[in-house]
Amino acid sequence: MSTGTPENKNRATAAAILPLVGGADNVTSVAHCMTRLRLGLRDRSLVQDDALKAVPAVMGVVEDDTYQIVLGPGTVARVAPEFEALVEEGRSASAGAPTAEQLAAEGAALRAAQKARNATPFKLFLRRIANIFVPLIPALIGCGIIAGLNGLLVNLGWLPAVTPALASIASGFMALIAVFVGFNTAKEFGGTPILGGAVAAIIVFPGVAKIDAFGQTLSPGQGGVLGALGAAVLAVHVEKWCRRWVPESLDVLVTPTLTVLLSGLVTIFGLMFVAGEVSTAIGTGANWLLDHTGAFAGLVLGGFFLPLVMLGLHQALIPIHTTLIEQQGFTVLLPILAMAGAGQVGCAAAVFLRLKNNHSLRDTIKSALPAGILGVGEPLIYGVSLPLGRPFVTACAGGAAGGAFVGLFSMLGDKVGSTAIGPSGWALFPLLQGSRGLGTTAAIYAGGLLVGYAVGFLATYSFGFTRTMLAELNAPATGQAADPEQPGDPVAV
């Protein structure tokens, strides 16, 4: 089937996915993040997993509180609106039909069980944190790349008339990020978004420099995104309290006024100081950790990041990254965590060489490896290493080695950071910034990637398969001759 224009291609992908997730009436919500199409479904049993994974644009699927289809960066942002449009068209076409109600009744027990498994308080909290910060990532990436370009031009002494403009473009969003965090927080917690943004704006207002709190003069931006998050949550609670007690005839005047006034006073005379102390502690703690235990810290962070991603616990790091970027201009944690992807790439290369007769898996690796090199790891995780088991562990070993390499240089005074969150792998190079020159920073990061590739490859090649696994996975398909070049050397059990 010809896809024609890119728009037709994206619509064709959406059209291929929709019937495989149970059709329009089975979809309750549509959203997307950097790489995944996230669907709320009435009846999970209607999803055809195997057929969905066979769709060319689909890199893998993940089931959590939502059903997540991995499409990759760029693609998902184009497919999602097409998918949403098809869902709306499907619902309009079937208006009045009882299909949705029937599906809802049949899937009620399944949905309840799924929510019970995933709705732990901690996981729900982390999902809310992700919902607040993930929408900010495109702006962080764009401004981060512009900041890196500006820094390069300044160091080279090029275009001095242009660099102030680039600095303004790159810094404008970060100067007001607290407002966006407040807006998204209020929206996520069920309040009026603009009121959350209004209260959070107090934190970055220059006039707070005239206010004394806790014996010290406040400074604009004190408390950063953590203060903005706390201020917006407080505003939501005040607003909900007002809705219960304020007469409807006065609600439009009284509720917004009390929400901003009460929340604003607490923010100025409490939250900004407390959040400022916490933010300072995060920055100091991260620097101390890498200055004194860099190699070990890098080994632990790089080695355990893939399991954290599998459990969804990596979302807890988003506010920490953002706080470090606010304070220091870059986050020193992301380049170390990115080494987990390098271990994954090395692991996939070893699997490709080991399983010369498994053409299906080799085809998956060939299609997913370029994305993995650029930092999109889901296709390799869910399509290769995780289903195989042991290679997932050896991929983690590669990440640990790469993380230890980058962490070691942090101990030696050569910190490597990223001016934004989101990308990793080779896609992180435009965002790199550190305590030394750009050349040194890029060289250390590249060295960490190479170490991750090498250790992930060697660990997987040597220890990634038992004899039984290798024999079963490498057996030629019926009617297919074995590859004469398949090595017959023993494999560690």
From TrEMBL:
It comes from the Bacteria. It is found in: Cell membrane. Pfam families: PTS_EIIB, PTS_EIIC. InterPro entries: Glu_permease_IIB (IPR036878), PTrfase_EIIB_Cys (IPR018113), PTS_EIIC (IPR003352), PTS_EIIC_1 (IPR013013), PTS_IIB_1 (IPR001996), PTS_Sugar-Specific_Components (IPR050558). Residues 11-93 form the PTS EIIB type-1 domain. The active site is at residue 33. It is a multi-pass membrane protein. PANTHER family: PHOSPHOTRANSFERASE SYSTEM TRANSPORT PROTEIN, PTS SYSTEM N-ACETYLMURAMIC ACID-SPECIFIC EIIBC COMPONENT. This is PTS transporter subunit EIIC. It comes from Streptomyces cremeus.
